[in-house]
Structures are given as structure tokens and as C-alpha cells.
Amino acid sequence: MELFKKTLDPVVALVIIAVLDIFMFLTIGAWTVGGGETMMTGLIAQLFLGDELSRIPFWELVFPPDPGYWKIYISLGMLFGALVGAIMSKEFYWRFPRHLSEWVMITVGGLLMGIGIRLAFVCNVSTFFGLTPEMNLGGYLAVSGILAGAWVGSLVYKKVLEG
Amino acid sequence: MSPVGECITAFIFGSVVGLLVQRSRFCNTAALRDAMLFKTYRNTKALLVAMMILTLGFTTFLTFGDGKPLHFDVGLNQVMGLFLFGIGMVLAGACTVSTWVKAGEGNIGAVWALLFTFIGMFLFSLLWSFSYWPPAPGTMSGEPNLAGLQLGYANAATLQEKTGIPAVVFGLVQFAVLLAIYRAIRRKETAAEHAKAPAGQGAGAASAGAVASRND
């Protein structure tokens, strides 16, 4: 199949995703990722801590762990779809970051993403594919934050790459 | 829709997104980073096109009161949170979407990034439990709460309520702004192609370059 031989134009891919996202918006809600990831965090923490977890107010008041939360399944679907795409186009292979500096950057980057998502209540997907197209004030605030952050991040990234 | 139906719909949507993103190499991080660092706009253009379609789609349905928009008060925490997120995604080389997609391709670095996103969220949940800030969405009122640094809640539907102007009109304004940004990027790209094309065969080479860049 042609799809698995050539790289797809990202504009085509995003047009299809946007149309599907509108259907999602009409039935359950626009595409987001951060909420599902938070729920997964809660479920994983519950595995380790059991009922102790409910003594942390966040998991009692804001995100009581619930495996039936639909946003979790968007993320799992993305993992599944990418796996199918990679296997069908023979692009699946294990990749490891080579240098210590990469591991450090990814670790710090991951932590900052997690903290940022929870502080803002939104992730980059809900910013660009949910809030801003709804013309939500939070979308504009989030876009200005992410642009400034990506700029600072790019400066750091460049420094690490060159240094 | 039943909760199970919601989960199945979400899974199918996610699968299509994962497949398309994997095949197109789209990445939200690259859309911002490459534009700032390398002045290339392959992903930025795709992001803008999606936002234009979504703006028209969402605001059209909001006009008739359809759809399920996100409801929560917004405030300075959005700027601060996404600022941290922006730094993080460039350092990790992946956003919330591409961590899942790259993990599906066998990228252990992306799995590591995901793991630490979870850890970051858990750390923040501990911090939140001391401060209860930002206020949880469920406790928000939609009115400005300046003590909590929350500005209230507004979108195209609330603008429609306040002004009586259909939401889609605001959507068209935003569409025009996004289109202007898109066209500015296209102009920049065309100018760069002209500069690269050798003198004499300018027009032909430039149009060939334009085709090549569309196929990249």
C-alpha cells in the first residue's frame, strides 16, 4: 500500500486529523493528551501506593483514578496506530539515545512537560487543537507561553548541541 | 454516548492519529523548534492548516450551541505551565503526541520522556496538595477570581452570548489571522527558493523548488 511506502505530507495528515477532531468535539470532546496522561499517572501511582493515594488531595479532588476515563484511550490508540504504521512500513526498530547529554535533556524535558501540563491544566495538543480553535482565552495564554518556552528551549538545545 | 462507547471512539481516533503522525513524521515540537532554530516550516504549515480547519469547524458548531468545548477558568498558570512545557518538549525532542508515536516506533528515549512526564505530573500533584493552586476545574465559577490569579472563562460561545454576534464571525477573524501567518511563511519560503535558484533560470527553478518543497 502506497501509505506504507512513501512519507505522507504532514498537511494531508493534519487535515484528516482536524476533520476527525471536529467529529470528536461534537460527540465527546476535542483531542487532548495531558488529561489522559494524568489519569494514567494516577492509576500507576495507585498500583504502587494502593489506598494511600487518596490521602494526597490532588488524586481525591482533581483526578480520582478512573480506568474508564476516555482520554486515556486516545493515548493508547496513538501508541497502537504508530506501532502498526511502523511495522507495516518496516520502520520499527529499537532506538536508544547515544550520549549521556541526551539522556539528561530527555529526563529534564520530560519532568518539565509533566509539571507544565499539570500547572496549566492543558497540554500542547489541547492548546493547538482544542482551546485556540474554540477561541478560548486559555488557548491564547497557552500559545504565548509555549512560544516563549520553545524559544528558550531552542537556545538551550542549540547550546548543548554545539557545546 | 456510553462510557464504553466514548473509550472505543477515543481509541479509534487515537489509532488513526498515531498512524497518520507516524507516516507523515508530523511533530508539534518540530513545528515550533524548526521554525525558530532552522527557519524551516514543514510542520509549522501543517499545524496552521489544522488550526484553520478546526477554528472554522468548532466556531460554526459553537454558533448553534453544539459541541463539547473545554470548560475551566484560565489564568497566568496557563502561561507559566506552557512555558515550562515548551522548554521541556524541545529538550526532550518530543511533545505529548510524538512521545507516544515515537514510543510506538521503538524509541526508548521517547518512552523515557513519557516516564518522566508521569513522574513530573506526580511531583506536581504533591505540590498542588499543599497549595491547592491553580484551583481545580470543578471548583471554578467562570467569573474572574483575581486572588487565585484566574481570569474567568471565555470562548467563541461566551462571546456570542455577550455580544449577540454569531461565534462563527469570531472564527472567521481568527481564520484570517492564521491564514495571514500561513501566507507570510509561504512568501518567506518562496523568497528563499528564489535566492537559492541560479540567475537566468530563475522562474523555472523556483517553481521546481516549490514542487520539491511540497513533496518533502
Automatic annotation (TrEMBL), chain A:
InterPro entries xref list: Sulf_transp_TsuA/YedE
Major subcellular location class: membrane
UniProt KW Cell inner membrane keyword: yes
One family name in Pfam for this protein: Sulf_transp
Listed transmembrane segments: 12-33, 68-88, 100-131, 137-157
Membrane topology listed for this record: Multi-pass membrane protein
Subcellular compartments: Cell inner membrane
Coiled coil, from the record: none
GO cellular component: plasma membrane
Keywords: Cell inner membrane, Cell membrane, Membrane, Transmembrane, Transmembrane helix, Transport
Similarity annotation: Belongs to the TsuA/YedE (TC 9.B.102) family.
Protein name, UniProt field: Uncharacterized protein
Species per Swiss-Prot/TrEMBL record: Thioalbus denitrificans
Organism classification: Bacteria, Pseudomonadati, Pseudomonadota, Gammaproteobacteria, Chromatiales
UniProtKB/TrEMBL annotation, chain B:
InterPro entries xref list: Sulf_transp_TsuA/YedE (IPR007272)
Composition bias, Low complexity: 197-216
Residue stretches spanning the membrane: 46-64, 79-101, 108-130, 165-185
Record keywords, A-Z: Membrane, Transmembrane, Transmembrane helix
Pfam family membership, one: Sulf_transp
Region Disordered: start-end pairs: 193-216
Protein name according to UniProt: Uncharacterized protein
Species this protein is from: Thioalbus denitrificans
